[in-house]
Amino acid sequence: MSSEDLTDIVIEALEVFLNHILYVRNLYPEQIFQKRRVYNAPVYVSIFPPLNAYIHSVLRAARELQQRGELQSVLLQFYHDELPLNECFTFEIKKFQPPAEAQGKEEAQSTLLWDDKFFIDFEQQLRNSLYKLVERLNPLAKLPKGAKFKVALNTTQEAFVKFSHSSANQGFPWLCDGLKKEAGKRVISLLPLTRLDSIGLKLNLELS
User: Fold this and answer.
1) What is the pTM of this model?
2) In what order do the strands lie in the sheet with 189-196?
3) What is the pLDDT of residues 78-104, one digit of tens each?
4) I want to staple 172 with a disulfide (CB 3.0 to 4.6 A). Which of 43, 57, 112, 160 is the partner?
5) Which CATH number is 3-207 given?
């Protein structure tokens, strides 16, 4: 399996989780989601064109950065009246290492997909992760009426400059978010939600 194939699997997993989180958090009416099976796992996927276009543009950029090894994490942030709400989902992404180059248990886990030709382990992890995600998000308070969301991609400054100046990316321009969380200004609790070791993907929820 090539690194490009692995990148496509990571991006598809991100698409599944982004759609599923939006569905579980009831940000949009249930009617715009359809139940489908992805890698033999039941998921809810948006059929609303404007939402799909936004997610597609974000994931196209994420794929380009991931393929170059420059994507560090993906953030899904809810906000209301232009102010961030107190929950932010962070997808931490590890760079793929071929089995021969992996060192230590954690890196070895993130190479499992190289040998998982029939995606058996990946399918099982994806199903378990989706069930676990729903269980852990159900107790959260409802989002306020009129809440929105945005997705941010964390990368290096050099990668951002190169990416944002590319003519291929001018149709969906990216901005550098200069807002930083200052230590001591607010209390943040980190809730590990789930992880897909076979593709090196870990999902956390920050509550403040």
Assistant:
1) 0.80
2) 148-154, 73-80, 83-93, 201-207, 189-196
3) 999 888 888 899 999 876 655 555 455
4) 57
5) 3.30.900.10
